[in-house]
Fold this protein.
Amino acid sequence: MMMKDLLQQYQKIFKTTEKPVQFFAPGRINLIGEHTDYNGGHVFPASISFGTYAVGRKRNDQKFRFYSLNFPGSGMIHCDLADLTYCVQDDWANYPKGMIHLIRESGFPITNGADILFYGDIPNGAGLSSSASIEMVTGVLLEGLFNLEIDRMQMIKLGQKVENEYIGVNSGIMDQFAIGMGKQDHAILLNCQTLEYEYAPISLDNYCIMIINTNKQRTLAGSKYNERRQQCEQALKDLQTELSITSLGELSNEQFLEQQQLIKDDTNRKRAKHAVSENVRTVEALKKLQAGDLDGFGKLMNDSHHSLKYDYEVTGKELDCLVQAACEQEGVIGARMTGAGFGGCAIAIVEKDKQASFKQNVNRKYREMIGYDATFYTAAISDGAKQIREGVH
């Protein structure tokens, strides 16, 4: 959707001739480093060109009105500055409400309401972090409308707090961090324990990043996610009987192999093996990109998927089918699942002039094996959350 269309929609929906201010926050992909965040390891996300637009204007009273072009059936959702509590009926609007509530609670003066229109082009249920995108676009919108100066790291932490405390989802900080700190043509190596980070240039040259949506709803992800966390926590406790470590992310592959017999349960041992080896791969990925070794980076992606399939067991037949089909295509240097797993998306690095045949061949195999189509998106790596000025995006 073009910005001018969004502005016209805004004026029509909110019955005004005034021009709103425009903001954008991207979605994110994680290039490598899956299920490492809660194991004290590194992640390697990048913000992408798909995301959430918010256009808004301040009101003279204390009412907020929210409307989403993605959920027109929900209609206009209203709330007041005096009552920003979570409300089940407000559905998707709880994400912006939570952000307004926590930013105010942090001492920033939001004295008026606003009329805000949201539109997102992130595929629903794809695991590309649409909720964190809504939180961060609300943050930059409030900053812009009310002339606030919110430290970006504080805004990121407030976004995570919305998820953890306001919505009640036990997620890490990677999504808000990638969306808040994203930089065009760069990925971010982030240490989830210390929040130390480093930008890595992504020089794809003749290649592009293809996002492939399984179109499978991730029904199991929540319960299995919690189960994996518990298995890793138990593995860590077993290791701590003889090792003075605070997280699995502190171990090298060699140290893990020497001490793995301390982990009593076979399944927990496999889970810990993934957490350790994936963290090592993620740190190595930065070095490969800095050296311009795209082939080496692709191999690490393939190894990551193998580990997620056999040691962490979070892929499922849909993701495995996509990744296998992708790896068989000419012009592909690496592919893996991205996100929590059990559905969602895979990513592949594909030669630009092979994109059409890649989509056709992979989708044919997917339809044969799974019974329905996958959806393909070519993602550019974009800047983080920001105000859009004079049509520049």
